[in-house]
Protein backbone atom coordinates (compact mmCIF):
# COMPACT_ATOMS: atom_id res chain seq x y z
CA UNK A 1 0.00 0.00 0.00
CA UNK A 2 1.48 3.32 -1.05
CA UNK A 3 1.79 6.09 1.47
CA UNK A 4 0.10 9.34 0.59
CA UNK A 5 1.47 12.70 1.45
CA UNK A 6 -0.50 15.86 1.91
CA UNK A 7 -0.03 18.49 -0.75
CA UNK A 8 1.33 21.71 0.72
CA UNK A 9 -0.86 24.77 0.33
CA UNK A 10 0.50 27.64 -1.71
CA UNK A 11 2.56 30.22 0.10
CA UNK A 12 0.86 33.43 1.12
CA UNK A 13 2.24 36.73 -0.12
CA UNK A 14 3.72 39.27 2.24
CA UNK A 15 4.95 42.82 2.01
CA UNK A 16 3.85 44.75 -1.05
CA UNK A 17 3.04 41.44 -2.74
CA UNK A 18 -0.35 41.54 -1.02
CA UNK A 19 -1.32 44.43 -3.30
CA UNK A 20 -0.83 42.36 -6.46
CA UNK A 21 -2.33 38.91 -5.76
CA UNK A 22 -5.94 37.92 -6.41
CA UNK A 23 -7.37 37.33 -2.93
CA UNK A 24 -5.32 39.90 -1.08
CA UNK A 25 -6.05 42.81 -3.41
CA UNK A 26 -9.52 42.94 -1.82
CA UNK A 27 -8.11 44.27 1.49
CA UNK A 28 -8.26 47.93 0.47
CA UNK A 29 -11.84 47.93 -0.89
CA UNK A 30 -12.98 45.99 2.19
CA UNK A 31 -11.41 48.54 4.52
CA UNK A 32 -12.79 51.54 2.60
CA UNK A 33 -16.36 50.26 2.62
CA UNK A 34 -16.21 49.29 6.28
CA UNK A 35 -15.74 52.91 7.26
CA UNK A 36 -18.54 54.09 4.97
CA UNK A 37 -21.05 51.67 6.45
CA UNK A 38 -20.02 52.38 10.03
CA UNK A 39 -20.14 56.16 9.80
CA UNK A 40 -23.06 56.55 7.44
CA UNK A 41 -25.74 54.30 8.92
CA UNK A 42 -25.91 55.65 12.47
CA UNK A 43 -29.56 56.71 12.87
CA UNK A 44 -30.83 55.30 16.18
CA UNK A 45 -34.31 53.77 16.49
CA UNK A 46 -35.79 51.67 19.28
CA UNK A 47 -35.21 48.74 19.39
CA UNK A 48 -31.83 49.33 17.85
CA UNK A 49 -31.00 46.73 15.17
CA UNK A 50 -28.16 48.96 13.98
CA UNK A 51 -26.12 47.76 16.96
CA UNK A 52 -25.41 44.54 15.05
CA UNK A 53 -24.45 46.50 11.93
CA UNK A 54 -22.01 48.61 13.96
CA UNK A 55 -20.58 45.57 15.75
CA UNK A 56 -19.96 43.83 12.42
CA UNK A 57 -18.38 46.96 10.94
CA UNK A 58 -16.05 47.49 13.90
CA UNK A 59 -15.18 43.78 14.22
CA UNK A 60 -14.39 43.43 10.52
CA UNK A 61 -12.51 46.74 10.38
CA UNK A 62 -10.26 45.80 13.30
CA UNK A 63 -9.85 42.21 12.11
CA UNK A 64 -9.11 43.15 8.51
CA UNK A 65 -6.67 45.87 9.60
CA UNK A 66 -4.77 43.45 11.85
CA UNK A 67 -4.85 40.81 9.11
CA UNK A 68 -3.60 43.33 6.53
CA UNK A 69 -0.65 44.42 8.69
CA UNK A 70 0.19 40.81 9.57
CA UNK A 71 0.46 40.03 5.87
CA UNK A 72 2.26 43.29 5.14
CA UNK A 73 4.92 42.57 7.79
CA UNK A 74 5.36 38.96 6.62
CA UNK A 75 4.08 37.26 9.77
CA UNK A 76 2.06 34.73 7.78
CA UNK A 77 4.65 32.09 6.91
CA UNK A 78 3.35 29.09 8.88
CA UNK A 79 1.25 26.43 7.18
CA UNK A 80 -1.86 27.27 9.26
CA UNK A 81 -2.20 30.81 7.84
CA UNK A 82 -4.00 29.87 4.60
CA UNK A 83 -6.68 28.07 6.62
CA UNK A 84 -6.97 31.00 9.02
CA UNK A 85 -7.22 33.39 6.06
CA UNK A 86 -10.12 31.47 4.54
CA UNK A 87 -11.79 31.08 7.94
CA UNK A 88 -11.57 34.74 8.91
CA UNK A 89 -12.86 36.01 5.58
CA UNK A 90 -15.69 33.46 5.54
CA UNK A 91 -16.81 34.53 9.03
CA UNK A 92 -16.55 38.19 7.98
CA UNK A 93 -18.60 37.50 4.84
CA UNK A 94 -21.34 35.74 6.81
CA UNK A 95 -21.36 38.53 9.41
CA UNK A 96 -21.59 41.16 6.69
CA UNK A 97 -24.37 39.27 4.92
CA UNK A 98 -26.39 39.22 8.14
CA UNK A 99 -25.67 42.92 8.74
CA UNK A 100 -26.73 43.68 5.16
CA UNK A 101 -30.05 41.94 5.72
CA UNK A 102 -30.61 43.96 8.91
CA UNK A 103 -29.72 47.14 7.04
CA UNK A 104 -32.17 46.22 4.26
CA UNK A 105 -34.91 45.76 6.87
CA UNK A 106 -34.14 49.17 8.36
CA UNK A 107 -34.14 50.75 4.89
CA UNK A 108 -37.65 49.47 4.25
CA UNK A 109 -38.85 50.33 7.77
CA UNK A 110 -37.62 53.95 7.59
CA UNK A 111 -39.36 55.07 4.43
CA UNK A 112 -38.51 58.77 4.88
CA UNK A 113 -34.76 58.05 4.62
CA UNK A 114 -35.07 55.45 1.87
CA UNK A 115 -32.76 57.10 -0.70
CA UNK A 116 -30.02 57.77 1.83
CA UNK A 117 -30.20 54.31 3.38
CA UNK A 118 -30.20 52.61 -0.05
CA UNK A 119 -26.65 53.84 -0.63
CA UNK A 120 -25.51 52.33 2.68
CA UNK A 121 -27.27 49.09 1.88
CA UNK A 122 -25.59 48.84 -1.53
CA UNK A 123 -22.18 49.53 0.04
CA UNK A 124 -22.86 46.82 2.62
CA UNK A 125 -23.67 44.24 -0.06
CA UNK A 126 -20.60 45.26 -2.09
CA UNK A 127 -18.45 44.75 1.02
CA UNK A 128 -20.09 41.35 1.53
CA UNK A 129 -19.22 40.50 -2.07
CA UNK A 130 -15.57 41.50 -1.53
CA UNK A 131 -15.32 39.28 1.56
CA UNK A 132 -16.88 36.32 -0.30
CA UNK A 133 -14.51 36.85 -3.25
CA UNK A 134 -11.56 37.04 -0.86
CA UNK A 135 -12.71 33.78 0.77
CA UNK A 136 -13.10 32.00 -2.57
CA UNK A 137 -9.77 33.17 -3.99
CA UNK A 138 -7.99 32.32 -0.72
CA UNK A 139 -9.45 28.81 -0.77
CA UNK A 140 -8.29 28.12 -4.34
UniProtKB/TrEMBL annotation:
Entry keywords, A to Z: Lipoprotein, Membrane, Transmembrane, Transmembrane helix
Places the protein is found: Membrane
GO molecular function, one term: structural constituent of myelin sheath
Membrane topology: Multi-pass membrane protein
Keyword Transmembrane: yes
PROSITE patterns registered for this protein in UniProt: MARVEL (PS51225)
Source taxon at top rank: Eukaryota
Occurrences of domain MARVEL (ranges): 18-140
Similarity field: Belongs to the MAL family.
GO biological process annotation, one example: myelination
Gene designation: MAL
Principal location listed in the UniProt entry: membrane
GO (cellular component) term, any one: membrane
Residues passing through the membrane, by range: 52-70, 90-110, 117-137
Keyword Transmembrane: yes
Protein known as: Myelin and lymphocyte protein
Amino acid sequence: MAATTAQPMGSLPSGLGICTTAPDIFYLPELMRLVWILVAATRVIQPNPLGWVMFVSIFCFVGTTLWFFTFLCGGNKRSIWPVLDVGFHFVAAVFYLSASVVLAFITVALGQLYKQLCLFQVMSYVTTLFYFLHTIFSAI
